[in-house]
Specification:
508 residues; alpha+beta; Uridine Diphospho-n-acetylenolpyruvylglucosamine Reductase, domain 3; Alpha-Beta Plaits; 2 domains; 8-stranded antiparallel beta sheet; 6-stranded mixed beta sheet; binds flavin-adenine dinucleotide
Length: 508
């Protein structure tokens, strides 16, 4: 008889925990690493199910001690969404990947079953890119870098600038959610059946097929329990052709940023709409120019390999969060010159760089102490929102960072901050100091005063409150809270709450 498989749980010594960017440190009740049992290829699902039991055991022990529980991904969130005063469960070692075989796929699934992959929560976007590449497949989109785990990334609504595609949660088709020591569920939309009836049974999970429940759990930053597995829909490998060009920040560009009518500016491929469009504005620039990064999606051809690392400085997928911290905490009067110098030395124009999604949006080394906030606004409000930000900057002249605009299709997730059709996401990436946080607050206040509708990235700097969330999410907020109440009983709503959800009024 085969021996019983058991996951390994390692309790770490540290009682203080900081996120990756070291934006804050909190006191926790404990940090646990969870490792899958070693298993032969024929026993992979059995091993996965043993890990489910181990995670349930941790929740059960926490509940006996009245401790709260939060799942941890790569700790890349700048907000305290992943923080707790209870125990943190490090899911990063949980990185198994499975193809979903024909018999597990519903007869009603309308896509190509070869694009379906079952991904354990701790698999990083980088690992996923490499695995899919080996199978001639690609993620549909990702953030600008690849260090997040799949569960952590989808839980806060991580996005790039895939205008017609969406954010990470938008290619998720199923979630395996552990809601307590005695319950775990397989969630899928009833309107979009993907797995056959036997699939949930293989995970020993209860099956729930319901659109609202699925859409509530997708972006829920650890508040619905531990996401153990994620069913994703990939697509055939493609490559991107990327260019970064300097453009005058004039009426034509202002028209484009709030309409996405690209014929008003000279892009590298005037007849085709870009897959990715991004505009970076340096508020300290003296030349009246902005940078635009444009990427076109192309059918993959053998031999089209990465040609992005050929020169120094910012590469096509790089994001400012990784490097802006190098400006350090400088004196206010030195800020404009320092930001200008960083951009002049690092941010160059280029044309026709090629690479797969994984090549282009690859690793970002984190240097210095950086922070960032990201506001989602309706496309047509982008011009007004930008004017407000520039006005706040003109009054203070000390924002140690840059402004970047990215665009994402509306998400079905109830609390996705990409809730406008489409959403322009305005990133303010900056050195992590008091000046930056005052600047963010000044911008949010000015948006409120000017009645500019906006949302805030769950994983980046925010000052969310129950009142601001109601303004942002309206009826969807109540719907989310009610669905959480119907899925989790009171005890486990308490266990899967945190100081962050308390502050946001999302714990009840
Ligand atoms: C250098 C850098 C670049 C970035 N670039 C982008 C970008 O381009 N676009 C963008 O949108 N964001 C970006 N971000 C923000 C980042 O993508 C998000 O904050 C993301 O959520 C981090 O993923 P993670 O795996 O580190 O999750 P964590 O930060 O560890 O956790 C995020 C949330 O997910 C929950 N969670 C994690 N794992 C699980 C699980 N298994 N089950 C249930 N809940 C879970 C946590 O409790 C927490 O609430 C960037 C951040 C950094 C540091």
């Amino acid at each position: 008889m085969a021996s019983e498989l058991k996951a390994r749980i390692v309790k770490k010594k540290s009682r203080n925990w900081s996120n990756k960017h070291e934006n804050f440190t909190v006191r926790i009740a404990g940090l646990y690493d969870v490792w899958n049992p070693a298993a032969s290829s024929g026993r992979q699902i059995e091993a996965y199910n043993a890990t489910t039991k181990a995670l349930q055991g941790l929740i059960g022990r926490a509940s006996e001690k009245s401790e709260r529980v939060r799942a941890l991904g790569s700790a890349w969130s700048i907000s305290d969404a992943a923080a707790t005063d209870g125990i943190l469960i490090n899911t990063k070692p949980l990185n198994r990947l499975f193809r979903v075989s024909g018999q597990s796929v519903s007869d009603h699934y309308t896509g190509d079953p070869n694009n379906l992959f079952f991904v354990q929560c701790g698999v990083s976007i980088g690992e996923l890119n490499r695995y899919l590449r080996q199978h001639g497949k690609s993620l549909k989109t990702s953030g600008a870098s690849n260090g997040q785990t799949i569960a952590g990334a989808l839980s806060t609504g991580t996005h790039g600038s895939a205008i017609y595609t969406g954010a990470i949660q938008d290619f998720v088709k199923g979630l395996h959610l552990i809601t307590g020591p005695d319950r775990h569920v397989w969630l899928e939309r009833s309107s979009d059946p993907v797995t056959s009836p036997g699939f949930a049974g293989r995970l020993e999970a209860e099956e729930i097929r319901d659109d609202d429940t699925f859409n509530a759990a997708l972006v829920s930053f650890g508040s619905f329990g531990i996401i153990h597995g994620v069913l994703i829909e990939a697509e055939d490998l493609f490559h991107l052709e990327a260019s970064r060009i300097k453009l005058p920040f004039d009426e034509n560009l202002k028209h484009v940023i709030q309409t996405l009518q690209f014929d008003h500016i000279n892009l590298p491929e005037p007849v085709e709409n870009p897959y990715h469009f991004e505009v970076v504005i340096n508020p300290h620039a003296k030349d009246g120019q902005a940078f635009s990064t444009v990427m076109y999606k192309k059918t993959y051809r053998e031999g089209i390999e990465e040609r992005r690392r050929s020169s120094g400085g910012f590469q096509p997928g790089d994001d400012f969060l990784g490097v802006i911290g190098t400006l350090l905490d400088i004196a206010p009067e030195a800020i404009p010159a320092a930001v200008n110098k960083l951009l002049a030395s690092q941010y160059k124009e280029y044309r026709g760089r090629t690479g797969t999604l994984g090549d282009i949006f690859s690793a970002t080394g984190i240097r210095g102490k950086a922070t960032g906030t990201a506001m989602g606004v309706p496309l047509e409000e982008t011009g007004r929102a930008l004017d407000v930000i520039l006005d706040v900057q003109n009054r203070s002249r000390n924002f140690p960072g840059v402004i970047a605009l990215r665009y994402v299709k509306k998400s079905d997730a109830l609390l996705a901050f990409t809730r406008y059709s489409p959403t322009c996401i305005i990133d303010l990436d900056a050195v992590d100091n008091r000046t930056s946080h005052n600047f963010f607050r000044g911008v949010w206040r000015a948006f409120d005063e000017q009645n500019i509708p906006y949302t805030l990235h769950w994983g980046k700097a925010n000052d969310l409150t129950p009142e601001s969330l109601l303004t942002m999410y309206k009826d969807d907020l109540d719907k989310w809270l009610n669905i959480r109440r119907s899925l989790l009983d009171e005890e486990y709503r308490g266990i899967f709450s945190s100081p962050f959800t308390d502050r946001c009024g999302l714990s009840e």
